[in-house]
Amino acid sequence: MTPHSRCGSRARGLRHAAAAALLALAGGAHAGLFDDDEARKAILDLRAKVEQSDQAAAKREAELNEQIAQLRRSVLELNATIEQLRTELARLRGVDEQLQRDVAELQRRQKDVQQGIDERLRRMEPQKVVLDGREFLAEPDETRQYGEAVGVLRQGDFAGAVTAFTNFQRRWPASGYGPAALYWLGNAQYGKRDYKEAIVSFRALVAGTPDHPRVPEALLSIANCQIELKDNKAARRTLEDLIKAHPSSEAAAAAKQRIVGLK
Q1: What is the pTM of this model?
Q2: Within 10 Å of residue 151's Cβ, how many Cβ atoms?
Q3: Taking phi first (over 0 means left), then psi (-120 to 50 degrees means alpha), and beta for anything else, what does residue 32 get?
Q4: Cβ proximity of 198 and 229 under 8 Å
Q5: What values do phi and psi take at 128, rounded to 5?
Q6: Which of 102, 108, 233, 260 is the most exposed, having the fewest neighbouring CB atoms within 10 Å of its CB?
Q7: Residue 43 three-state SS
Q8: pLDDT by residue (tens digit) across 166-216?
Q9: 104: DSSP letter
Q10: Which helix (H) or strand (E) holds 149?
Q11: 3-class secondary-structure state, position 136
Q12: If we measure between CA atoms, which residue out of 169, 213, 223, 163 comes closest to residue 188?
């Protein structure tokens, strides 16, 4: 039973008691047990008690109603707070998901930037090159310019090749490509029928790197230039030097055949 129900029951009990007392007093009047003053006093006392009980019950009921109203307000406020927290949580989840996407995008961009930087650094850093059995370091532009010069020569543009290899030597005087550049420069000059300049280039190769794999071919090319210049005596001497210095080379085998044809 709730407090509100108990208060109502108590009030009803007092009313019933008062009613019973009045009945008893009324019956007693006929028997002469009580006089009018005593009966009136008893009725007034009971009525005062009933009123007091009603007032207490009403006050208690009002207090209970206020407590219930306060509880309802508290529940409503709590529900509103919960809903607000749910909304804020959903917003924070959305913010967190966006932050995760932003972080992933930043990481991807950072990776792309780093890869780009690494690629540019690789393009700028000297790279290991193996040419004619020799290993050396060359800058990317150095390799590119050498390759372009060789490409011009392969196209049969001897004048353009002479210019390209000459520019390469000026730009990279200490290049590991130097001996090969001299060799191909001599060939380009030979193609132009500039035999004297070709001899200069081939001899520069022989004198600068006497152990280079292309030295035998350079000596044979010098002899060919001398033959074109009608200097068979010098050509024979060059071919003999080639055979003596590099007897097992393919150029030496070709030199032996050339000597037979010289007068």
Answers
A1: 0.57
A2: 13
A3: left
A4: no
A5: -75, 130
A6: 260
A7: helix
A8: 999 999 999 999 999 999 999 999 999 999 999 999 999 999 999 999 999
A9: H
A10: helix 140-154
A11: strand
A12: 163
Structure tokens of 149? 């010069």
53-56-59 Cα angle (round to 5): 150
Q: Which of 34-38, 60-64, 84-88, 157-161 has the lowest mean pLDDT?
A: 34-38
Dig out the tokens for 49 from the structure.
């008690």
Residue in the block written with tokens 């004297």: 196
Please state, in angstroms and rounded to a whole number, the distance separating the CA atoms of residues 231 and 246.
Answer: 22
Pairing of strands 127-131, 134-138: antiparallel
Class of residue 71 by CB neighbours under 10 A (exposed 0-12, middle 13-18, buried 19+): exposed
With vertex at residue 156, the alpha carbon angle to CA 195 and CA 183, rounded to the nearest 5 degrees, is: 50
Residues 142-157 pLDDT 10s: 999 999 999 999 999 9
Q: Which two tokens stand for residue 263?
A: 């007068």
Q: Report which DSSP code applies to 128.
A: E
Contact 252, 243 (CB under 8 A): yes
Tokens of 122: 């690789």
Q: Per this entry, what is the length of the chain? A: 263
Of 216, 154, 214, 219, residue with least CA distance to 178 = 214
Residue 128 one-letter amino acid: K
Residue whose entry in the numeric block shows the structure tokens 């060359």: 138
Cα–Cα distances in Å, from 62 out to 3, 59, 74, 76, 262? 12, 5, 18, 21, 140
For residue 187 the two structure tokens come to 């060939």
Q: What is the CB neighbour count within 10 angstroms for residue 110?
A: 10
Is the pLDDT higher at 94 or at 116?
A: 94
